[in-house]
């Protein structure tokens, strides 16, 4: 099986579609890297592109996208709600099939090296690719943003992992990393009292004592008339959707509130759902080689 | 997406491996039809071969296998525990991906026509391919077996769908059909009292008032020291694994017996497990286009 990865570059341009189109086209010139989708947010003044393919193709496509962005975006003129430090702001690699986090880290390093040496853009490796524990968290890496980093970058603790120890004059700096696939998983509660959703969100998320790899907010959905525990599962292979769901369900029951349904926003790797089926049906000896489709498509 | 089907011919030879090998080789001469596996049972004196591929390739491969079997197996000399009426006894087609039951019925008809006209083997269409309600059930089609059918076949109600109204002298007759994928699903109970498993099996199976598309037996597994509700789910798209599992689990609870685990024997289409995940996680709005792998492999 070939190595299949995702790469999700974020560019600091979300208002001029012709600039976004030019950057996307530059990446589409690498046919082995498929552009799955891209979306722009005018308020954030930022665009997110999802690429899929083998690591080499993704490294090449991301490099070309960053090269185009360094010519087309001038960060000294950029304003937007979202924190940013570069024309190409962050580039995470995500292992999907037939590859490991180490492969994603390797892709991040290779891309970082090229951005630094060929485009003179300083690069910080983050999350699984981080070279120092204090660089794991993207928010820490980006502290001060483009404007603040201009001074700070010369200091030893802000030295980039690749490239020169000074910002690119218009393209700033780029964070390149490796992380697991993120699943957006929401559980809807049959109550208009949003305080229940907020209380459960606080109990379930890691930052306030709940599950690691789980971020959560309590929201009220006006249109549906339900409250929602809105979660980002940042590593479903270690913190499973079904354990978190069962926790939320029991907490809701404890508050005498029904769970009326759940939803996944966007995409989910099938492994997350197969793990849930295995858990609930108690298929303790099941393994994925028993999947008919796997058997039919494996090279044998 | 191309049409992907399974075809599972059963041959009346399970003791002479060289005969089985010759039949399998005849089918492997059609490279587009992949032989996923084959197994022989000496007691039954019968072999089962699983082929996968597009319908045309499967029809051609099954035809070649039946042709070889008609030369290599003499049913007048055949003895075994399993009921049979032909050298090639039954050939079901099973829709797997990108195709419907109608496509499987179409493949069954095309193969039946060829077996009748080119090999002079009388063919009965069964299950979804049946041309008369009383031929849906394979056991009814095969009544009397090879020896009994020799006389009966001339009678109007035993007239074959294709081929001559008399048995092939050595190869007998063949049943060709279309059916859904069969899932072997067992639930283990933490008790040595097999009567609980037998009682639950009786309650869950369609033949004694339970779920349609569910066959079940209660067994005691000496080696594991547990009892088992052993089920064949003959159409999981209409009778789901999770509904049947929940029924068995509640019945066991009613008898104060724990469910210690479940197992799937052999292969299962991923749709059966995704349906379970959707049910238990209450992902009512989920659809399969949200699967990352689907998105990555779809032609776009």
Q: Which percent bin holds the helix content of chain A?
A: 25-40%
End-to-end Cα distance of chain A: 11 Å
Radius of gyration of chain A: 21 Å
Task: Calculate the mean pLDDT score of chain A and round it.
Answer: 94
Multimer state = homodimer
The residue ranges of chain A in which pLDDT falls below 50 over 5 or more consecutive positions are none
- CATH topology term of the largest domain in chain A: Formiminotransferase-cyclodeaminase, Chain B, domain 1
Provide the CATH superfamily of the largest domain in chain A.
Formiminotransferase, N-terminal subdomain
Largest sheet of chain A: 7 strands, mixed
Tell me what the structure shows:
2 copies of one chain form a homodimer. By secondary structure, chain A is α+β, with helices and mostly antiparallel strands. Chain A folds into 2 domains: 175 residues, 2-Layer Sandwich (Formiminotransferase-cyclodeaminase, Chain B, domain 1); 108 residues, Formiminotransferase, C-terminal subdomain (Alpha-Beta Plaits, 2-Layer Sandwich), CATH 3.30.70.670. In chain A, 34% of the residues lie in helices and 24% in strands. Chain A contains 9 helices and 11 strands. In chain A, strands 1, 2, 3, 4, 5, 6 and 7 form a 7-stranded mixed β-sheet that branches. In chain A, strands 9-10-8-11 form a 4-stranded antiparallel β-sheet. Chain A is globular and about 55 Å long. Chain A starts with a strand and ends with a helix. Chains A and B meet through α7, β11, α8 and α9 of A and α7, β11, α8 and α9 of B.
């Amino acid at each position: 099986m070939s190595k299949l990865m995702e790469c999700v570059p974020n560019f600091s341009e979300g208002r001029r579609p012709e600039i976004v189109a030019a950057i996307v086209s530059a990446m589409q010139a690498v046919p082995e890297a498929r552009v799955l989708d891209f979306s722009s947010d005018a308020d954030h003044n930022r665009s997110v592109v999802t690429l899929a393919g083998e690591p080499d193709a993704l490294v090449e496509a991301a490099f070309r996208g960053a090269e185009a962005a360094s010519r087309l975006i001038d960060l000294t003129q950029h304003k937007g709600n979202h924190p940013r430090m570069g024309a190409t702001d962050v580039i995470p690699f995500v292992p999907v099939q037939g590859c490991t986090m180490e492969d994603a880290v390797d892709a991040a390093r290779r891309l970082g090296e090229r951005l630094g040496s060929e485009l003179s853009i300083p690069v910080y490796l983050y999350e699984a690719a981080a070279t120092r524990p204090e660089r794991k968290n993207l928010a820490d890496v980006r502290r001060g943003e483009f404007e603040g980093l201009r001074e700070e970058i010369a200091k030893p603790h802000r030295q980039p992992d690749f490239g020169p120890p000074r910002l690119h004059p218009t393209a700033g700096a780029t964070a390149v990393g490796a992380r697991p696939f993120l699943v957006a998983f929401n559980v809807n509660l049959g109550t208009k009292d949003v305080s229940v959703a907020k209380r459960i969100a606080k109990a379930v998320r890691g930052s306030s004592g709940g599950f690691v790899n789980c971020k959560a907010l309590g929201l009220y959905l006006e249109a549906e008339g339900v409250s929602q525990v809105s979660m980002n599962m940042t590593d479903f292979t270690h913190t499973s959707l079904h354990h978190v769901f069962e926790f939320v369900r029991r907490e809701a029951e404890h508050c005498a509130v029904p769970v009326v349904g759940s939803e996944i926003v966007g995409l989910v790797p099938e492994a997350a759902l197969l793990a849930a089926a295995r858990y609930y049906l108690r298929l303790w000896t099941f393994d994925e080689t028993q999947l008919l489709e796997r058997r039919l498509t494996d090279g044998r």
